[in-house]
Amino acid sequence: MARENIYQSLEVFYEKIDVCPLRDRQFNFFEMVYVISGNGSYSTNGNKVDYTLGDLFLTTPNDCHEFDLYSISEFIVVRFGENYIKEYQWKSIDHIECLLYYASHLSGSVLASHHDKQMVHILTQQLQHTIEHNNIYNQDLIRHLVNAIIVIAARNISAVKPKNISPNADVRILQILDYIQEHIRTPERLKIAVMAEVFGLSPTYLGSYFRKQCGETIQYYISSYRIRLIEHRLKFSDKRVHEIADEFGFADESHVNKFFKRHKGMSLKSFRMNGIKKSSAG
């Protein structure tokens, strides 16, 4: 499988094509593709969905994806590397971590909100106009437009819940999931007894209710979510292990390493070094 790289922290371009120019490729960067016109199918990591006007797709580093075009199609393509995430001072980094956390689980368009679809449509129109006209301060304007799209995508992705969640999930389970995400750095507030009291349930019922609604235990969901956030701290920040331990409420480095190793089979330092080696090899 061929691998693609980018040589700038941000690349934005428009394309009108009738055949996908890159097939069965694995990228070392993030790519957002907005559909301006046309129809066809989009495949990522073996999952295939149809695309149409207004869809926005996001692939993360090491995802494999391709398009099959049923008609001439127009796209706005935005590519950005790890450095772009690091260098921009996001108001709330959790937006980006939500994006990173959930994107690899998605096979379809990341836009769920009708209002956000309209906003992204307007932003991509402005983005296309900007890249087609070489005016003063274009690069700054392009970055602002791209960042707005990233935040809107993150807002939609953050609403994506566990893949096995019941399609008829009620409001309470959505509130519980939001509570877990909000308090993921405060283990005391994620104890079953505490959560049960917050939501007016017995601890036993909370556990069985969560499993029935989400298809997994509440402890598994909390651990998986915390692990993925720690992974992205290691990939996209320069935080030291003791700082990560403090942030996520672990007593010290040994405790966070024990937790991480139980799930990933290696220490935080080893995980970070493996990521650095893969980036260098790519």
Please write out the topology.
Layout: E1 2-4, E2 10-17, E3 25-27, E4 30-37, E5 40-44, E6 47-51, E7 56-59, E8 64-69, E9 73-80, H1 82-87, H2 93-103, H3 114-132, H4 138-157, H5 171-182, H6 192-198, H7 203-214, H8 218-236, H9 241-247, H10 253-264, H11 268-281
Parallel strand pairs: 1-3
Antiparallel strand pairs: 2-9, 3-8, 4-7, 4-9, 5-6, 5-8
Helix pairs in contact: 2-4, 3-4, 6-7
Give helix and strand order, one letter per element, not per position: EEEEEEEEEHHHHHHHHHHH
Number of strands: 9
Strand content: 15-25%
**Shape, principal axes of CA atoms:** globular
Characterize the biggest β-sheet.
5 strands, mixed
Q: Count of helical segments?
A: 11
Radius of gyration: 20 Å
Strands across the major sheet, in which order? 1-3-8-5-6
Q: Helical amount among residues, as a percent range?
A: 40-55%
Poorly predicted spans? none
Summing up helix and strand content along with how strands pair, one would put the structural category as: alpha+beta
Q: How confident overall, as mean pLDDT?
A: 85
Distance between the first and last residues' Cα = 13 Å
